[in-house]
Amino acid sequence: xxxxxxxxxxxxxxxxxxxxxxxxxxxxxxxxxxxxxxxxxxxxxxxxxxxxxxxxxxxxxxxxxxxxxxxxxxxxxxxxxxxxxxxxxxxxxxxxxxxxxxxxxxxxxxxxxxxxxxxxxxxxxxxxxxxxxxxxxxxxxxxxxxxxxxxxxxxxxxxxxxxxxxxxxxxxxxxxxxxxxxxxxxxxxxxxxxxxxxxxxxxxxxxxxxxxxxxxxxxxxxxxxxxxxxxxxxxxxxxxxxxxxxxxxxxxxxxxxxxxxxxxxxxxxxx
Length: 271
Prior knowledge:
Elements: H1 3-13, H2 16-19, H3 22-30, H4 33-48, E1 54-58, H5 64-72, E2 77-82, H6 85-96, H7 101-104, E3 107-111, E4 122-127, H8 138-151, E5 152-164, E6 172-178, E7 181-190, E8 196-205, E9 210-220, H9 224-233, E10 238-245, E11 250-253, E12 263-270
Parallel strand pairs: 1-2, 1-4, 2-3, 4-5
Antiparallel strand pairs: 5-12, 6-7, 7-8, 8-9, 10-11, 10-12
Helix pairs in contact: 4-5, 8-9
């Protein structure tokens, strides 16, 4: 048996779950940077009369958003911040490496605690996928909001993504088909006294194999008014809620909505 035949046989012997790249699966099933960028452009321009140029992506993971931010607009810059060296290496190898030098040179990735970021000043701080929920006390969240406020430029706007609804406070599972695999979201635990919640992402494939707990999140479920209060306490002048209309996949500014089983929203905090 030749080397090519053996390699092919070895690949066939492995399940699709064993061959899967969890970071790529996450990008395909969770992230949609074009929607986020469109929101940031629209809100920032409505507040400042100009488009945003610079962004810091906190908890950036694979830096998919930062890459798209710079790829789509030749004048823009991005700083991605994450503590995990493995995911930052993946970002460099899979997202940045595929871009022209003119794009790569405008993206800077930092292996750093987001609480310790002091520079550069940016137009936008992006906090997606509920990642600030790692802070479980008001003191911790207020401290992070102050860091955001201090590192934004004088016209800066922060965008924090949040979810909620009645099902967010339950042990529950949800799934949806994405291309040739199934994305599975599990809320494994929820404590109504502390609002601590433990969640997992799993992936299932057409051969029946499953990538269990590809990602795990140990969070506090924060509510919109709680986060707003922390942002105001940190010095922000306005904190607007942008609610996602699932029918149009577009966010609209809102101060009153009917309760839902599940919702997505952004808080846009302006200096």
